[in-house]
Write a structure and sequence with these properties.
Length: 220
């Protein structure tokens, strides 16, 4: 056992889980703040009606509809966070690449929104692909690639993601208007999957072998 490497990997994983969780809980907090504000307005309407004052049922309906919509959005964030939390289960040694990519794109949306960048994931992708890696390893690489592409992206632009399978290679491309070539993710992350990255003007391309070499698996 390489204790130094194991401690480094654990610290990296904890940092990643913390950043993703913090982003998700910020989303939930924002939704709750709006729900609280709208609920207070609904309460004011009801108090006015109770005192005999005439109220606009149309406005009341609109307020309640917005509360219901925000509850739905907060619930969606909680469900995504719950799926992500299961990524840390130690017994999981493989993952489904397509659904986890969709999850990570959704969870990264807030980060992209801070820079006014929109994420567009192409719906033309494989139905399902099993990857020989833990969910957490795969998610870290995806998050790192999106972070690198976002750092290089022009504000108020669109970052397009496309996933495809070519025989025993899984390819993810991230393309958009960028100020320069994005910085490649750290080698220690890519090594977890036996993956490689090619970054160029306006694009970042990730390649993951579906049957990585033994040393890649041991590096986990």
């Amino acid at each position: 056992m390489n204790l130094g490497r194991d401690c480094s990997a654990t610290g990296r994983e904890l940092d990643f889980v913390g950043r993703v969780t913090a982003s998700a809980t910020h989303e939930i907090k924002n939704e709750l703040a709006v729900i609280n504000e709208q609920s207070r307005l609904v309460l004011e309407f009801l108090e006015m009606a109770a005192s005999g004052k005439e109220i606009s049922l149309e406005r009341l309906h609109g307020l309640i509809s917005r509360v219901v919509a925000r509850v739905g959005q907060a619930d969606a964030v909680v469900k995504r966070l719950n799926v992500f939390a299961h990524s840390t289960e130690l017994e999981r040694t493989a993952c489904e690449a397509v659904s986890l990519l969709e999850l990570m794109v959704q969870m990264f949306g807030r980060m992209a929104g801070l820079k006014r960048v929109s994420l567009e994931l192409s719906q033309e992708h494989p139905a399902a692909v099993e990857l020989t890696a833990t969910p957490l390893q795969y998610e870290q690489v995806l998050w790192s690639c999106m972070s690198a592409a976002l750092a290089a992206a022009q504000p108020s632009s669109i970052l397009r993601l496309h996933l495809e399978r070519d025989d025993e290679i899984l390819r993810l491309s991230l393309k958009g208007e960028m100020t320069g070539p994005p910085q490649a993710p750290p080698a220690e992350l890519l090594d977890l999957l036996g993956a490689s990255v090619l970054a160029g003007p306006g694009s970042l391309n990730l390649e993951i072998p579906l049957n990585p070499p033994p040393e890649a698996k041991e590096g986990a």
